[in-house]
Design goal:
Elements (H helix, E strand, L loop, with lengths): L2 H14 L3 E5 L2 H12 L3 E5 L5 H9 L2 E5 L7 E2 L8 E4 L13 E6 L12 E5 L2 H11 L27 H16 L21
Parallel strand pairs: 2-3, 5-6
Antiparallel strand pairs: 1-7, 4-5, 6-7
Helix pairs in contact: 1-5, 2-3, 2-4
Length: 201
């Protein structure tokens, strides 16, 4: 992991008011890592959201529960039975909006307010959880240590979901403009009713 990624993580964490941030290659992979980490058995999916989210249930072999929810800015994938509140906050851009005791996933996809083409971030307030999620995103490795020097000590399953330094560099460059500009106000009609799709029946 490069200094650029570390710098970008700190800027996003400070803006959202989160103690820790873990950079990933996209929001969907951030959600996947959180679900794997939390070992949840089911997820609550709004009928109107991005299509990759309900596919996570099939990918991870967990139950998908459709919800009629007129959500704004973010929604919860897990209920109160889970240790962590896992939140899809892909369209959220608001200062000091981190929700304590949550794993909140952000998106920097090209249509989002901080548009980097691709990329995401997981916000958390637990240091050890941040370290574990970082290793999961980074092929199971400890960042900043060549994997050949630690391969006998790798104990975390990794998924090659890390953010590249090039993406982080672009994020740092565009961050100030994003802070100073008003974000788009997304509405529920921006997404179709996914539960009506044949593939989800």
């Amino acid at each position: 992991m490069s200094d650029l990624v570390n710098t970008f993580e700190k800027r996003i964490a400070n803006f959202f008011g989160s103690p820790y941030a873990v950079a990933v290659d996209c929001c969907t992979h951030g959600l996947e890592l959180c679900l794997r980490f939390s070992k949840v058995k089911s997820i609550n999916v709004p009928r109107r959201t991005y299509i990759s989210v309900p596919f996570l249930a099939d990918k991870l072999n967990i139950q998908r529960v459709w919800k009629d929810e007129n959500w704004q800015e973010y929604y919860y994938l897990t209920d109160n039975t889970s240790r962590w509140k896992i939140i899809d906050a892909a369209v959220l851009w608001r200062e000091n909006s981190y929700i304590p005791n949550s794993l909140m996933c952000l998106s920097f996809q090209f249509q989002k307010h901080l548009s980097l083409g691709r990329g995401g971030m997981i916000l958390t307030d637990d240091k050890e959880t941040a370290h574990t999620l970082c290793r999961m995103a980074y092929d199971g490795r400890i960042p900043n240590v060549p994997w050949k020097e630690q391969y006998m000590d790798i104990q975390t399953i990794g998924y090659h979901y890390y953010m590249t330094p090039e993406t982080a560099k672009l994020g740092i460059k565009k961050f100030i403009d994003a802070v100073n500009e008003e974000p788009k106000q997304w509405v529920i009609e921006d997404w179709p009713d996914l539960s009506r799709m044949e593939i989800f029946r």
